[in-house]
Design a protein that fits this description.
This protein is mainly α and about 100 residues long. Helix content is about 60%, strand content about 0%. α2 packs antiparallel against α3. The radius of gyration is 17 Å and the shape is elongated. The two termini are about 25 Å apart.
Length: about 100
């Protein structure tokens, strides 16, 4: 039976990942500073709107933007993992190369 592992369960030294490390890696996948910048720009766009948006509109726009940007950043790290492992700056990203 061929099973694919969706989450890496050991780190580079072969030790099992701890729960805080696992969640830290998940957060790092979303590139929080890029995500924050996009959320600020979304908020600014909503603020400059000629009509006052409802709380539901603001909430849905912010959650939707956060999910789209975080998912795109994680997908980018997945696609670039082979190159990232070769570069000094990106070598320690959470996805193994």
């Amino acid at each position: 039976m061929n099973q694919r592992v969706l989450v890496r369960d050991v780190n580079d030294t072969g030790d099992a990942l701890t729960r805080p490390r696992f969640f830290r890696d998940l957060i790092q996948l979303t590139k929080p500073m890029i995500l924050l910048t996009c959320l600020i720009m979304t908020g600014a766009g909503l603020w400059m709107s000629p009509v006052i948006p409802s709380i539901a509109t603001v909430l849905l726009a912010m959650v939707g933007t956060g999910l789209a940007v975080g998912g795109a950043n994680a997908l980018n790290m997945y696609w670039e993992r082979d190159v990232d492992r070769l570069m000094q700056r990106t070598r320690k990203r959470p996805l193994p190369g």
